[in-house]
Amino acid sequence: MIMSSIQEIQQEIVEEFEMFDDWMQRYEYMIELGKSLPLIDEKYKTDEYIIKGCQSKVWVHADLKDDKIEFTADSDAIITKGIIAILIRSFSGQPPQEILDADTSFIDEIGLKEHLSPTRANGLVSMIKQIKLYAIAYQAKAGN
Amino acid sequence: MASVSTPLTFDVKSIRKDFPILNRKVNEKPLVYFDNAATSQTPQQVIDVIVEYYSNYNANIHRGVHALSQEATDAYEQARIKLQKHFNIPNAYQTLFTSGTTHGINIVASGYAEILKEGDEVVVSALEHHSNIVPWQMLCEKTGAVLKVIPMTDNGTLDMDAFEQLLSDKTKLVFVNHVSNALGTVNPIEFIIEKTHAVGGAVLVDGAQAAPHINADVQALDVDFYVVSAHKMCGPTGVGMLYGKEKWLEQLPPYQGGGEMIDQVTFEKTTYAGLPHKFEAGTPNICGGIAFGAALDYMNAIGFENIAAYEHELLEYATEKLKAIDGLRIYGESKEKTAVISFNIEGIHPYDIGTILDKLGVAVRTGHHCAQPIMDFYKIPGTVRASFAFYNTKEEIDVLVAGVERAKNMLS
């Protein structure tokens, strides 16, 4: 199977969310996505892997496999889990450089940033930042 | 200046007309504002005072000889007298304007840094807001004083037996909130003040959450310091009040250096101004102070007894309705509490519930409410907190309850 590019995956997500008429269906879908999240290994659910800026707890871990980063994550809040699931679907299995170059405006397109409260939005920004930080770290490692 | 109408009876429909913000929609739904413990909404009468200040007599106070400065000074000092009367403070000069409760606490804490000695003890309650914990921790680190904590019990009240055990002749200060922001518990401050005075200590009461519901009389309470914020009681943000007994205010050193707080300045020595200016360095929030006075006028015209009675009705109604939801637990069930309900639903994160409620136009607070020790006590990440004001209605509570049920169905 040929891996889709980040842009293709994001377009796919946008199209999926367009199928829903109202916010409630979108949230219900997001909750479903949350349940399908590739869960983080319990040993990484420590303060070292926690993301600041979220009212709910979020843990993200990354591994480099075949020059691609695989993300796993978890949260104690289910809507947050849905958001992470969307991000991980978009970025997991991609090369560091692709992740660094990726645009995240699809978050706006599916109405998440607009519809989530400011503190939550900050959490979302922190999550994206953390994913990009992992990409920088692995790219630096690969360069050495 | 805007006049304040006096309603003959408590008529929530007519009161709601005073609050323009209550007409707005959020996420295409009528706003249901239940985050009053974070900040209250502002009536048109107070908004008018703010507009009038900037449209008509904005000027710096206390030093100008011109007309605008005189008018602004008069209005600001009249507002101080309104605060003085409202809290039954002996003198206007003991009624200090601050930027808010946190500022008031810090004035006292930093002053005590000069007074406390190593081995002295300060007592704080387990029900405090972070703003009433952190300054005292900093104070203890600086002075070598020891911080002791009054423990809480499962129903969200303070353990008064344990409190009495903590007191000794080493106790110099006790800090407690009048009402807990996270749970709404009304603390037995009369008892705390009496017992602390018996061992020679002083008491600072954080009245931020009490002032919108309870008209505190600082002389009847015999409290040493009382602090409040205007924005919890229909006034603007960025202004508050610190009351202090005269003997303490004379003893405490100034908090900040600058204009207003000086008497004579030479490069050899500066002598400080008397009260209240010693603690009011720099240009104050003049408009805010004046608007704070107008907010008190507004609330007093409705009447604090009327407000408390109506809010209690809302509290009982909401408690009964919410408790009927399967799996819902209310935190803080003191007999004496203000119109605050902190709750969780088993197995659901409070943040998820808050997010769904927001989509339904209902504003609640979620999280630890700046009171992490309370959350640690219950071993929870936070709660959903609905806090009611006198302009809320039972119909709005019905919207909340339906929203919580909807959230529960979506999230479980």
From TrEMBL, chain A:
InterPro entries: Fe-S_metab-assoc_dom (IPR003808). Residues 14-132 form the Fe-S metabolism associated domain. It holds the Pfam family SufE. Belongs to the SufE family. This is Cysteine desulfuration protein SufE.
Automatic annotation (TrEMBL), chain B:
Its EC number is 2.8.1.7. GO terms for molecular function: cysteine desulfurase activity; lyase activity; pyridoxal phosphate binding. Pfam families: Aminotran_5. Its cofactor is pyridoxal 5'-phosphate. One of its GO terms (biological process) is cysteine metabolic process. InterPro entries: Aminotrans_V_dom, Aminotrans_V_PyrdxlP_BS, Cys_dSase_SufS, PyrdxlP-dep_Trfase, PyrdxlP-dep_Trfase_major, PyrdxlP-dep_Trfase_small. It catalyses: (sulfur carrier)-H + L-cysteine = (sulfur carrier)-SH + L-alanine. SUPFAM superfamilies: PLP-dependent transferases (SSF53383). It is an enzyme of class 2 (transferase). Keywords: Lyase, Pyridoxal phosphate, Transferase. Residues 32-400 form the Aminotransferase class V domain. Belongs to the class-V pyridoxal-phosphate-dependent aminotransferase family. Csd subfamily. Catalyzes the removal of elemental sulfur and selenium atoms from L-cysteine, L-cystine, L-selenocysteine, and L-selenocystine to produce L-alanine. This is Cysteine desulfurase. It comes from Leeuwenhoekiella aestuarii.
